[in-house]
Amino acid sequence: MDAHSRGRADDIDPADQWVLNPQTGHYELRLDHSAGEPAGVSRAAAAEGAGHRGDTRTAAPREGSGRRAGREGRQDGPRREVPGQRSRRGSQGGGRGTEPSATGRRKPKPKPSRKKKAMLWTGGVMAFVVVGASVGAYLLYERLNGNIDTIDVGDQGSKNVLTDGPMNILIIGTDKRTGKGNEGYGDKGSEGHADTNILFHVSEDRTNATAMSIPRDLKTDIPECESKQPDGSTKTIPGTPDVRFNISLGQEGRDPGCTMKTVESITGIAPDHFMMVDFNAVKELTTAVGGVNVCMAKPVDDPKSHLKLPQGESKVQGEMALALLRTRHSFGNESDLDRIKVQQQFLASMIREMKSSDTLTNPKKLFTLADAATNALTVDTGIGSAKKLMTLAQEIGKVDTKNITFVTMPVIDNPAETVKATVVPQPEKADQLFAMMRSDTSLTEVKQKEKAAKSKQAALLKGPKADPAEVRVDVLNGGEIPGAAGSTVTWLQNEQGVLKSTNKANAPEKAKETTLEYAPNQADQARALAEMMGLPATAMKQGTADAEGLEAMVLTLGADFKGAGQLITGPAKAPEGIQKANADQAECAK
Prior knowledge:
The chain is of the alpha/beta class and 590 residues long.
């Protein structure tokens, strides 16, 4: 520990920081070292106190020989002690130590009021508390920061969306057998699968969120991906067609970045970051929060998961919480889809507990929870610090629980199987849900968003529109559909009369959303094309300089483009009849 942290700064002895205040009869901490006075004590009073102690070191310096005398007093005078080391001395001489005024006598200054003395003393104490709190906060931050494990997933986790724009966080629960007591869970010797998967979408305005569960038994194509290996090298892993979603993690060296790419290929939504938890994380987090309230519609006694709960409400944590999330034989028809429902109910209850006043107003509980959370999580390097995770938590915390909706990706039994073991996306409903999330529409605010979109669309189309024959547009394909630019140009020319449309093939890079770039003097053409294609207001990108001569507008088709003639409208309508639940509503597992 350095001199400053022991109470010594600028070669000042710790004892010299305490002086006797003759007005109170108590030793007080001298905060102003340069003035040589205690807080709230005048120079004359300080000097008088020094006289009582037989020590002239705090006296105001005089010109000439007085300064030398002061220096000699510092060298030869007796050492003072910090209060508590000895009793206070009486007056033992050693000089008054006061500086004479022009008339030969110094006029004493008025004593500060009792209120002022209290305020000055309180100020000193508060300064100490603030410094102490800063040191404590730094130590706590360092501890939380050191807890976090990170995985570099390259560009998949490099986006800075914590405080700006909508957020898409992929939450992955892995079944890897790590930690004491987890030998009976998951597959023996496995590197862990993407066993539980939730794409958590937080709206740009932080008013709502949608948590969409993706079944682990979903049959899909896993795209080629790059994965960082334990030795630091990067491995390119070939894509695998028509397999279960859960092998997008852990198998063949795949990391969470591969799972993120798989989610993007299915939904058209690129996760900005990931957060991964294992069996221990469930135990630690549920214990840190003090247990999670759950409700059973009937008594549960599952010998496989060792879950045993009575009918009605219970509070679970640790092993019992993990058993509840793992069991497949206690609810519904014992399928993974029924287990997902229970997991969603559990997570909704946990969110309510974390946002309750009992947690938010309890510093000890908050730290225990933060310590457990940072210790339990593995995240991408883009959010791999305590500060960034705290910012993320604050942003998510802005969303009212009544506007957090849990939903399961709409699926149907795999028609290619005789024995139904896997599922595939339900074409219309799944696409509707994905489009809704891409357009930042909440399941709790669909009607309001649709009304606002119609209003924006009406404002967009307000004004003169060019005749289709006068519309000039270059079309580029930045979406996922091969040949989309060519098919769109054919549709525009044959079906809409836009003869001056040109196929410019692939865009320089992929685009999430369709955009139309146009000049101010092309606004009438832009309105005409927007009406034909159902472009949302967000797609319109007006430049600042007018177009010259035969310059054309630029239409770049994005991931939201579904085919020539299909309107690109936003926000999309939410699918009807899908399984969903709100985080503020408690339900009993059946």
